[in-house]
Amino acid sequence: MTDNTLPLTPKEFWSDVWKEGVIRFHQQEYNQAMVDFFKDIDLKNKTVLIPLAGKTNDILFFLEQGAHVTAIEFYEGAVLAFFNENKIPYTKKDHTYYGKNITFYAGDFFDYKNQTPFDVMYDRASQVVFNHEKRPAYYAHMSTLIDNHTILFLGAIDHQGPDDYGPPFKISPEEVKSAYKNMGIFLKMASSQMNAASEKMQAVGVVEVQTYFLSNIQ
Fold this sequence. Notes:
Blueprint: H1 10-20, H2 32-38, E1 47-50, H3 58-64, E2 68-72, H4 76-85, E3 91-93, E4 96-99, E5 102-105, E6 120-123, H5 135-142, E7 151-158, H6 173-181, E8 188-196, H7 199-202, E9 208-215
Parallel strand pairs: 1-2, 1-6, 2-5, 6-7
Antiparallel strand pairs: 3-4, 4-5, 7-9, 8-9
């Protein structure tokens, strides 16, 4: 366990989360907002980016649609768990795992490079990992992986609690829209719902949490 007398770095925090198995964010079922959004979009042979993917089963949805998925996750144990739990054969070279129609990069998001913009970017909520100071670097690196032809469906959370509480950190839809507008990409609200805050969040004054998804197509 990391020494709690010192501030945790993001990697230390998420390593502890995975090692201790405290992964309430991991869902067995596909994200329903994602399924509803992509149901009428032809994903066959499309290249799909899923940043900070964990071991999400949402990857399987895109593989079932015939897409070529690139997922990124720094914690290698989560990458191995995805392949093993879903019984998907793989090979490994350096920091990258390869399966049928899937490339899984086990490394830092900021170290990942790609020569061609992805056709689709699905982001369950990777932005909420980063605090306000780090998010500009996140957006800057994301701009090297997508362009204004990329279909985007990206999620985050917002609430009325402290700005510095997290992760997950709150992000207003307006901030996300502004960041992507700077890339020449114009986002609109695709779905939104209010949920009761967890006991941990209620302890810092958060009552309700808005979970939302934005997209550049409607």
